[in-house]
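Hey forum,

I'm writing up a methods section and want to include a predicted complex as supplementary material. The small molecule is LWGJIB7O. I've pasted the protein sequence and the SMILES. Can someone with a working setup run it? I'll credit the forum in the acknowledgements.
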Amino acid sequence: MTTALRRLRNYIDGEFRDAADGRTTEVVNPATGEAYATAPLSAAADVDAAMAAAEAAFPAWRDLIPAERQKVLLKIADRFEERAEELIAAESENCGKPIALVRSEEIPPMVDQIRFFAGAARMLEGRSAGEYMDGFTSIIRREPVGVCAQVAPWNYPMMMAVWKFAPALAAGNTVVIKPSDTTPASTVLIADIIGSVLDELGHSRGVFNVICGDRETGRLMVEHKVPAMASITGSVRAGMQVAESASKDLKRVHLELGGKAPVVVFEDTDIAKAVEDISVAGYFNAGQDCTAATRVLVQDSIHDEFVAALAKAAAETKTGAVDDEDVLYGPLNNANQLKQVKGFIERLPAHAKIEAGGEQVGEKGYFFAPTVVSGLKQEDEIVQQEVFGPVITVQSFSDEKQAVEWANGVEYALASSVWTKDHARAMRMSKSLDFGCVWINTHIPLVAEMPHGGFKKSGYGKDLSAYGFDDYTRIKHVMTSLDG
Ligand SMILES: NCCCC=O
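Reply by user p_vandermeer:
Happy to help. Structure tokens for the complex are below, copy them as they are.
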């Protein structure tokens, strides 16, 4: 007996709609490998409709006093809490994520982040107004950018949607957001939540629109004439395409494109604590995290002890069913990602050694074992490229200079960490590490008040924080004559 697939829809101007031409894609639960829903495969007509709704809603939303936008965001945050179990269920089915961890690790920060941006809505800053030429006063207006086209990734579909819509709406922009084609369910649910709040508080539902679809849909959004800004979290390849498309009409671009975080462990570190924290930061969310503690560089004097402890921690780490509370992570997000991760392992050079894991787990779904690979060289593919799977690589370094050179010797530059009891060394390393974030004796925590974003091929623009908020605004100089 076949069960009917649930039908997800776009959310445009306050209405749930199928794609105009009726095309759909199947949405697969990665824990089972089975389709559970269909989602629209949106094309130009759908993108036009969503952009038109966001464009029509923009003037009224822009012109609200910030306190009114704050009220909307605070209510959205409350509603996220009230409907948390629905969000958790959707996200867990989207991604195969352990239910208990979505509840404890995703819902509270998301709610906090929305509340942070609700506050930011009332903190639109400009530098001092004043007389910079005799007889004239200059002031700064900080304004929203306009309609924002936003493309979210599949690793944290709900949270990345929050990182995009919350600062954009707080600053007075309107939004058209596209979830990944593998994970649309939680974003469609978010549309229901935001739409109902907008309605209750008397605002146009066109302020927030969701378009489901694939890369081509994303391209149509970015190239569309309406949005003033394109924001994407995704691969370097996707980011470069967005930057190129956006350059045709000089749209503002905001890119978060992944990482290859070095985890630099010096010989004076507390090995047991470092191993415990690094294995959680490397395997959480199946390593599908752009800041994952994926690339360990360990000082040669403690290398063997450290690798043995890391391999033991990997063997004790559990992946499995969404309702198993002992599980640290679920499956890889999709069949293609499983193939990618397997490919990295299959192509390992002869000098590499698999210390733990290295294979798929179970026959159903896309689970992969917690893996440790040692004996690697700086130029190896698995050291240079983002694996986005539960794989921690280990290299052995001799001194601080070599550690810095290897840590910085990749094209990504999002996050990093240094592990040492020597404060001066930690401070020297935090200056030398060429990454958007340096953690000291920890790895992966983030807070709404601090920026998340990288350098080099990790992209540009910040998420979270007042810096992220500013990215969704533009500044205008107004100069007035004092002669009347
Ligand atoms: N830990 C959150 C990282 C966001 C991007 O993957």
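Some notes you might quote in the supplement: The mean pLDDT is 97. The CA atoms of residues 11 and 192 lie 8 Å apart.
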